[in-house]
Design goal:
The complex is a heterodimer of chains A (194) and B (173). Chain A has eight helices and eight strands; from the N terminus they run αβαβαβααβββαβαβα. By secondary structure, chain A is α/β, with parallel strands linked by helices. In chain A, helix 1 packs parallel to helix 7. With 173 residues, chain B is an alpha/beta fold. In chain B, 40% of the residues lie in helices and 20% in strands. Chain B has a six-stranded parallel sheet with strand order 2-1-3-4-6-5, with helices on both faces. In chain B, strand 3, helix 4 and strand 4 form a beta-alpha-beta unit. The termini of chain B are close together. The chains are: A alpha/beta (194), B alpha/beta (173). The interface between A and B is large, with 38 and 33 residues.
Chain lengths: 194, 173
Amino acid sequence: VSQLERRAVTRQLLRSRGDALVVTGLGSSTYDVFAAGDSPLTFYLWGAMGSAAMVGLGLANAQPGRRIVVVTGDGEMLMGLGALATIGVRRPTNLAVVVIDNGLYAETGMQRTHTAHGVDLAAVARGCGFAAADTVQTPAELDALERSLYTGPGPRFAAIKVAPEPTKIELAPRDGPYLRSRFREALLGKSACL
Amino acid sequence: VTSAPAWPDALYAELLAAGIKQVVYVPDAGHRRLIELAHANPELTTVVLTTEEEGIGVLAGAYLGGQRGVLLMQSSGVGNCINALALPAECRIPLLMLVTMRGEWGEFNPWQVAMGQATPATLAAMGVIVLRADEAERIVETVRAGAGLAFDSGRMVAVLIGQRALGAKVFRK
């Protein structure tokens, strides 16, 4: 069992985000990213399970000069596994998908996900043509990911195995129009809201 | 063999005029010409999807990033989109879907009928505004109206292109 703690992992990865655009998958990933520090350039999903990586792809297409980082959970990624194939066709060089993989559906009572039974998400991403796809299990591997996440050619994928302990819910903003408009204003300027 | 219809080229021009930059789709015979035109234009980003719901996420991301897009699909794909529509619904993100219809006008394949018949009600149940074009000469103006409603008024809009306008798929050759 991995000793990496999900809040510490997320905090470490996001401290280097710079001007990267971040999309989160519903549930624990949304809470983790919010707990690491709110930003108008973070778009939190609270629903539409399975969509996080695809929101990242649309953003990556629209903003080729910016790094896009999707932070989601194993359950959310598994619900939209085809998204990895769709990203593999486009191969956006500015997109990274990070799965915080605890092997559990934490929101619904800690039932085991497919990854707890051995399904290897990094192998799927590799098979879909990602430029890099790794499983991260140690602090040294996490340090390496923190460096490559924002600078290495994409599309990049990492499944970070984290400890299964539950974490406290940190309530990120969930009002959709607010999240939409603050993101667009911060990225595109005031004219985006005209 | 009948000659290719003229409306897909006019529809393509209409989408460019509406500022569309991303064309995302699950292939369908009714959208064949439009998909070819989109791929031939280096100014457009095309995304082929494994399932239609992916397109809802891609277009939400496109809008967050400052681009307009369109999602092309057949009516059988509408049901795949239901829960993903929560994203544009809650965030009031513009969405333009062009849906070629099956299961209605002279359909041969009975397996297409259930989703085809349920398509307008399914979209409406999720808050998507449904427009229809059942004659080829109405398609472009209906898409123009739909694009206005989607991008100017910030709404989810589906334009259903009727099987009557497309012609039923021929199985017995």
